[in-house]
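[agent] plan:
  1. take the single chain provided in the ticket
  2. run structure prediction with default settings
  3. attach structure tokens to the ticket
  4. add a short note for the reviewer (M.T.)
[agent] executing step 1
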Amino acid sequence: MIRAKVRHRGCSRPLQRVVTDFGADVAFAQVEDKLVEHYGIILAESTIRRVTESHAQQLFAATRIDESWPSEAGSGTVVVEMDGGMVPIVEADAAQQDRRKGKKLQWKEAKLCLAHAAGSKTLSYGGTLQGDVAQAGKQLFGCARSAGFGKNSRAHAVGDGAEWIARQVDERFGSQGSYLVDFYHVCDYLSAAAAAIHPEAEAAKVWFAQQKERLKAGHGAEVLESLRAHSETDAVADSEAPVRTCHRYLIRRKDQLDYPGALANNLPIGSGEIESAHRYVVQKRLKLPGSWWCAANADHMLALRLNRANRQWDNYWNQARKAA
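[agent] step 2 finished; step 3 output follows
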């Protein structure tokens, strides 16, 4: 107790940091075991939860986004990506005295974004759970600013084709931004269409490969024409019309298929970075088996994990020490 500087009914700042660091990664009950294993300290799960959520809330409240248009020169091109992923949320029934009764379970979308200068491996992250698409757009622009987006920079955005992401890219970056539909999402649609057009596996494989090469060469119009020629009639339901569905998906995004331009400039044509980020930033903590979150607590925990992903952990604790 003396060595850990633990006070009665309180935790020292170093211990709070350890608790919060563990609590950001694993369930609060597991933190108990880790504290005993690594430090020989016993803390109740309720204390671990309180300490972790308190710092998560402070980080959330302290988060600031730079929305100003840059006046300084920046990187030539900044790659930006944004995607949504579902988080399990529980809502308590205010009319019930017992909070365990009448609660509602649902899934809420966490919107995550990242940015980095082209060719750089240093990523800047942002995200929101309770915020709307406009707030997510602010986060995306803030990430780009942190990653080096300047007054003469270009923003190369890649996404899964969600219209709200494309709109935010256009609103935030204007003529200095461009949006590219993730090539592999397009391939999913093309693969389903290929199987419908050519029941023989080998013929479907050949057609599929041909359309991919056409897209990479900038011949999207030829892909659309090939799909149109085999499109199902309107009498067929969308669920049974993969060719028509693929054609509609591409024609609505025909201005977002500049794969030749991206490849020529060594820029990504897939959104794998943001999809991976969802796994190691959001899902690793917020989608643990059997865990359900109050929306506010989930938003706070997301802010905590983003802070660490952005390598700002030491800054937060240095400021907390000075404020103590």
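[agent] step 4 note for reviewer: The chain has three domains: 13-62+302-323, 75-178+271-280, 184-256.
[agent] ticket updated
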